[in-house]
């Protein structure tokens, strides 16, 4: 499993567990990069994966937010 897939799975689990609620802003790309010791592009790939799964939505100049359409039991591959 690649780093971005691992990070995407971790974030998806947190969404499913309710640690990040619908409409809540996710941590910034830079803060996640520093927190997990990965590159900014790795975090961007993880967020892109979650966006494709409709778990999060981007808001220009604001960041990423948990999608109201986020469903339980979604996993990244």
UniProtKB/TrEMBL annotation:
SUPFAM superfamilies: Winged helix' DNA-binding domain. GO terms for molecular function: DNA binding; DNA-binding transcription factor activity; transaminase activity. Keywords: Aminotransferase, DNA-binding, Pyridoxal phosphate, Transcription, Transcription regulation, Transferase. Residues 1-69 form the HTH gntR-type domain. Transmembrane segments: none annotated. InterPro entries: HTH_trans_reg/aminotransferase, Tscrpt_reg_HTH_GntR, WH-like_DNA-bd_sf, WH_DNA-bd_sf. CDD domains: WHTH_GntR. The keyword Transferase applies. In the C-terminal section; belongs to the class-I pyridoxal-phosphate-dependent aminotransferase family. PANTHER family: HTH-TYPE TRANSCRIPTIONAL REGULATORY PROTEIN GABR (PTHR46577). This is GntR family transcriptional regulator. The gene is yjiR_4.
